[in-house]
């Protein structure tokens, strides 16, 4: 035991070793990752989170879920298609609280993720028939936040309203 303690005390990094470490690209994991921010004040039960989303997402080859901070989690998948399907099916919630998802790129430090974009279903009632179109829907959503016009989904079938899915940006 004393021998191990003596060796341990000799281990240190100095200015001579430097603080720059280069990572080789072939060492990077091959999974596709979704980072999730849970907008709740309650503590997360990761077993319940994993069980719930496994049933909802029906991803064939999900590998792991890991807690990363008090209200963040990483979901790792073997297939890019699973990640694409999950992100295109937003918005998501857990225990009635919003969950904002981001495709995680391994080069980005987790602390740099902003979680400032979310998809929401929006319904606007009492719109005159001549104005029930995608452009008016997007203009109305601009009042809430910036709309990603490439991902908005629009529907005006039936009723006196327009509805759609817009990805809103808090900027």
Secondary-structure map:
Elements: H1 2-10, E1 32-38, H2 46-57, E2 62-67, E3 72-77, H3 80-88, E4 92-94, E5 97-104, E6 117-125, H4 134-142, E7 146-147, E8 153-155, E9 161-169
Antiparallel strand pairs: 1-3, 1-5, 2-3, 4-5, 6-9, 7-9, 8-9
Give a concise summary.
The protein is of the alpha+beta class and 171 residues long. The protein contains four helices and nine strands.
Name some characteristics of this structure.
171 residues, alpha+beta, Alpha-Beta Plaits, 2 domains, 5-stranded antiparallel sheet, 4 helices, 31% strand, elongated
Describe the overall structure:
The protein has 2 domains: 29-106, RRM (RNA recognition motif) domain (Alpha-Beta Plaits, 2-Layer Sandwich); 118-169. The strands form 2 sheets. A 5-stranded antiparallel beta sheet has the order 2-3-1-5-4, with helices on one face. Strands 6, 7, 8 and 9 form a 4-stranded antiparallel beta sheet that branches. It is of the alpha+beta class and 171 residues long. The protein contains 4 helices and 9 strands, in the order αβαββαβββαβββ. Strand 8 and strand 9 form a beta hairpin. It starts with a helix and ends with a strand. Helices cover 23% and strands 31% of the residues.
